[in-house]
């Protein structure tokens, strides 16, 4: 199925569900490199709003997520779920996630320019607080917390199965986690790590303290799954 065919089928599905297809924008031909920092920030919010709606749609309408098997153990499409609709929504989610990651890269690159622009506007050489803008950048999940061992370091720090990590140790996020390899050097015994997660639609900030002084294996007592 070509991208054009995917778009036609997706828009048809949204119309059949009484959604306005205009709410779900396609950024396939958009040149994000030419966008300003402010424009990129706006588009990022648009994309994440669409992602939230599509994830809710998968869960509430089709009782599925990105990992729900679409075929039976012997390789045939499942008859108890709407395989076609779920696949169309998943494809759009994947495309939007890729767009979001590209925007994160560009926002990071343009952060210094934005800082300089604001400094010039204020005519001040004093430090300018750009944390509210940076907060927009680090909001896409890049890892899901798998099984958490009860009374292990992760459990005692407040992490729970299903949490989606958006920020790890203050500066590891969706654009630079290198398929979670960047986390490895940060996880050392007794070193406090700030972790922000999405949990049930809310952002939760935790302090994770790895430990090798417990009965289980590893420093965390949980599995982290790349998203």
TrEMBL record:
SUPFAM superfamilies in the record: PDZ domain-like (SSF50156)
Cited InterPro entries: Nas2_N, PDZ, PDZ_sf, PSMD9
A single BP term in Gene Ontology: proteasome regulatory particle assembly
Gene3D superfamilies with a match to the protein in the record: 2.30.42.10, 6.10.140.1710
A GO term from the CC aspect: cytoplasm
Domain PDZ, chain residue ranges per copy: 143-208
Keywords (A to Z) from UniProt: Chaperone
Keyword Chaperone: yes
Pfam annotation, one family: PDZ_2
Protein name per the record: Probable 26S proteasome regulatory subunit p27
């Amino acid at each position: 199925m070509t991208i054009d065919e995917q778009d036609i089928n997706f828009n048809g599905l949204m119309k059949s569900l009484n959604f306005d297809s205009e709410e779900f924008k396609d950024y396939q031909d958009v040149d994000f490199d030419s966008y300003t920092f402010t424009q990129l920030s706006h588009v990022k919010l648009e994309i994440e709003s669409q992602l939230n709606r599509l994830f809710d749609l998968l869960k509430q309408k089709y009782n599925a997520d990105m990992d729900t098997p679409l075929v039976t153990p012997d390789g045939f499409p499942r008859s108890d779920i709407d395989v076609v609709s779920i696949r169309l929504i998943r494809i759009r989610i994947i495309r939007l996630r890729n767009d979001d990651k590209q925007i994160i890269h560009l926002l990071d690159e343009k952060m210094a320019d934005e800082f300089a622009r604001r400094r010039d506007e204020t005519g001040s050489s004093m430090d300018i607080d750009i944390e509210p803008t940076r907060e927009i950048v680090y909001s896409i999940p890049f890892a899901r917390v798998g099984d958490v061992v009860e009374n292990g370091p992760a459990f005692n720090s407040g992490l729970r199965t299903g949490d989606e990590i958006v920020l790890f140790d203050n500066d590891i996020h969706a654009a630079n986690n290198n398929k979670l390899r960047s986390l490895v050097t940060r996880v050392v015994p007794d070193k406090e790590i700030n972790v922000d997660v999405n949990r049930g639609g809310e952002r939760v900030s935790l302090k994770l303290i790895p430990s090798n002084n417990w009965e289980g294996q590893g420093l965390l007592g949980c599995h982290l799954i790349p998203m």
